[in-house]
Amino acid sequence: MVSGIYKIINKINGDFYIGSSKNILRRKNEHIKKLNSNKHQNTILQRAWNKYGELNFEFLIVEFCTIDLL
């Protein structure tokens, strides 16, 4: 389990969503599943995902850190 801060970047316009998780890989998969199902809680990210498509987004790890620092 890897914890830390991550960023989902729109490669078309540079907009991004930033988050943190105790388990980054699991969280990434949750985001992708919700976005592909059109059920993500962040409507701005969801609209951009629908407009530009999954291939125009990049998931980056900003920083690894221990759970107590999240």
- Overall strand count: 3
Count the DSSP helices.
2
Quote the average pLDDT. Answer: 96
Name the helix and strand elements from N-terminus to C-terminus, one letter apiece: EEHHE
The secondary structure category is: alpha+beta
Shape category: globular
Q: What order do the strands of the largest sheet run in, or round the barrel if closed? A: 2-1-3
Cα distance, first to last residue? Answer: 14 Å
Largest sheet: 3 strands, antiparallel
CA gyration radius, whole angstroms: 12 Å
Helix content: 25-40%
Spans where pLDDT lies below 50 across 5 or more residues: none
Strand content: 25-35%
Q: Mind explaining what this structure looks like?
A:
This protein is α+β, with helices and mostly antiparallel strands and 70 residues long. 33% of the residues lie in helices and 30% in strands. The chain contains two helices and three strands; from the N terminus they run E-E-H-H-E. The chain has helices at residues 24-36, 43-52, and strands at 4-10, 16-21, 57-64. Strands 2-1-3 form a three-stranded antiparallel β-sheet. The longest helix has 13 residues, at 24-36. It is globular. The mean pLDDT is 96.
Entry keywords:
single chain; 70 residues; alpha+beta; 33% helix; 30% strand
Which helices and strands occur, and which strands form pairs?
Elements: E1 4-10, E2 16-21, H1 24-36, H2 43-52, E3 57-64
